[in-house]
Design a protein that fits this description.
binds 4-nitrophenyl phosphate; 6 helices; alpha/beta; three-stranded parallel beta sheet
C-alpha cells in the first residue's frame, strides 16, 4: 500500500529570499512538533524573479538561527500557474503577493486555495500582513520570525484536522 499523499502548502512573498523561505522553515518545524511531519509538504516561492536560484538572505538565515531554526537548502523560485494544481493551500505573506497570485488564478477553485498569512494572526498582533524586512535592520528580521512562529502555531491548529481528514 502506498503512503498517503501529503497536504501541500506553498508560502509566497515577493523575492522568495526573506519571508516565504522563513515561513516554509518555520512551518516544517511546527509541523514536526505537532507530529505531522510525514503528512505535510511545504515549499515557497516569489511573485518576482529577481532572486531566482538564490539562497535565502543571510540576514534572514541569521534571524532564523537566533530563534533555533535551521535552513534546509531552499533556492528561490518564481510562482507559476501550475502551483495552483500542485498545492492544497497557497499563503501570500502580504496583500501585494495576494493580489499578484489571484491575478493568475484560472478559476474559482484556484482562488479558493489562496489565504493570506494574516488570517492566522492572533488578536494581539498589530500588523495586517507580514512586513517586508528587506530594507531594514536585524530587528525587522527577528520580528518576522517571531510573528511567523506565533501565527504558524495557529495555522497548524486550524489546519491539522483537515490534514488528518484528507490524508489519513
Ligand atoms: P521577500 O523580501 O519578498 O520577503 O523575499 C524581499 C526580497 C527582495 C526584495 C524585496 C523584498 N527586492 O527588492 O529585491
Amino acid at each position: 500500500m502506498s503512503a498517503p499523499a501529503p497536504y501541500r502548502v506553498l508560502f509566497v512573498c515577493l523575492g522568495n529570499i526573506c519571508r516565504s523561505p522563513a515561513a516554509e522553515i518555520i512551518f516544517n518545524a511546527v509541523a514536526a512538533k505537532n507530529g505531522l511531519a510525514g503528512l505535510v509538504k511545504a515549499d515557497s516561492c516569489g511573485t518576482a524573479s529577481y532572486h531566482t536560484g538564490s539562497k535565502p538572505d543571510h540576514r534572514m538565515l541569521a534571524a532564523l538561527e537566533r530563534a533555533g531554526y535551521s535552513y534546509g537548502g531552499h533556492r528561490a523560485r518564481t510562482f507559476r500557474r501550475a502551483d495552483f494544481s500542485d498545492f492544497d493551500l497557497i499563503i501570500p505573506q502580504d496583500e501585494y503577493n495576494e493580489r499578484d497570485i489571484l491575478a493568475l488564478a484560472r478559476n474559482e477553485a484556484d482562488a479558493a486555495k489562496v489565504r493570506g498569512m494574516w488570517q492566522w494572526f492572533g488578536a494581539e498582533e498589530t500588523e495586517s500582513s507580514v512586513p517586508d524586512p528587506y530594507y531594514g535592520g536585524p530587528a525587522g528580521f527577528d520580528a518576522v520570525v517571531a510573528l511567523l512562529t506565533r501565527s504558524m502555531e495557529k495555522l497548524m491548529e486550524s489546519t491539522k484536522d483537515e490534514i488528518r481528514r484528507t490524508k489519513c
